[in-house]
Amino acid sequence: MPHIWCAGCGIGSAVGCFIRAIDRTGLNADKMALVSGIGCSGRAAGYVRLDSFHTTHGRAIPFATGLKLANPELNVVVFSGEGDLASIGGNHLIHAARRNIDMTVICINNFNYGMTGGQLGPTTPLDARSATSPYGNYEPPFNLPRLVAAAGATFVARWTVFHLRQLERCIAEALVKPGFSFVEVIAHCPTAYGRLNKQGQGVDGLRYYKEKSVVRNGADPSEADIGMSGPILVGKFIDIERPTFWNNYMQVSNKAQKK
Amino acid sequence: MSEEGIREGQFFINGDEACAEGAISAGCRFFAGYPITPATEIAERMSRRLPEIGGVYVQMEDEIASMNAILGASWAGVKAMTSTSGPGFSLMMENLGLGVMLETPCVVVNVQRAGPSTGLPTSVGQGDMMQAKWGSHGVYEIIAIVPSSPQEMFDFTITAFNLSEKYRVPVLLMADETVGHMSEKVVMRRVAPEELVQRRRPTAPPGKYWPYQPDSDLVPPMAIAGEGYRFHVTGLTHDERGYPEMTAAAQERLVRRLVDKIRLNRKDIINYEEVGTEDAEVVVCAYGITARVARRAVQQARDEGIRAGLLRLITVWPFAEDRVRELSQQVKAFVVPEINYGQIVLEVERCAGGRAKTLLLPHMGGGMHQPQTILEGIREALR
Question: Which of A49, A54, A70 sits opposite B72 (nearest CB)?
Answer without folding.
Answer: A70
